[in-house]
Design goal:
single chain, 2 domains, 9 helices
């Protein structure tokens, strides 16, 4: 759920208004901590990333040109902070990312897309997040960056130090593994 900002909140934050900064924190902290958790997988690391990221937000808030896009700007800072945290703490290894140039990527198959939408409507948001959390690190990180945060494969490749084709492969494999996990969960639920 997106927080509701009054039009002057960001302007007041830019001026260093303590009450406005506290309001910004209160309105965004749960969303931003959730972003951190999608990358770190444990609350202690997520809180470390969150605090580091929020400090960056406070330091750079004057750079925000479009107050209507403040939340997406904050989420990008958190995602970047999480990736840097994982790299710095060696929780993101090169072998987390498989490069398979022969992997068949077919983005135009409407039947598959419709099937995926139908399946996603049959599972709760909490269950979906748990299945995403259980993906291998490389898959999960690329899926989060591309599908949730909106980064391009080129941006992801630069952030993670991988090739664009590796990013695309990781994303496609993540989608396939996630779809299979959802189908297995639905099949299990129907049997019990």
């Amino acid at each position: 759920m997106s927080p509701d900002f009054d039009k002057n909140l960001i302007k007041r934050c830019k001026k260093g208004d303590t009450k406005a900064l506290e309001e910004l924190y209160r309105k965004t902290s749960s969303t931003l901590l959730g972003v951190c958790l999608r990358y770190t997988k444990n609350i202690q690391d997520a809180e470390d990333v969150f605090h580091e990221g929020f400090i960056k937000i406070l330091k750079k808030i004057n750079q925000v040109n479009d107050e209507n896009k403040i939340l997406s700007w904050m989420i990008r800072i958190m995602a970047n902070t999480a990736i840097n945290f994982l790299k710095k703490n060696k929780k993101l290894a090169e072998n987390d990312f498989e490069d398979n140039l022969d992997y068949n990527v077919n983005n135009n198959d409407e039947i598959i897309k419709n099937d995926e939408n139908l399946i996603l409507n049959m599972i709760s948001e909490h269950e979906l997040y748990k299945l995403i959390e259980d993906l291998p690190d490389g898959y999960r990180i690329v899926l989060n960056l591309y599908a949730i945060e909106g980064y391009t494969h080129k941006e992801i490749a630069e952030m993670l130090g991988i090739s664009v084709s590796t990013s695309k492969t990781q994303y496609q494999k993540a989608k396939n593994k996630l779809k299979k996990a959802i189908e297995e969960k639905l099949s299990f639920n129907q049997k019990h």
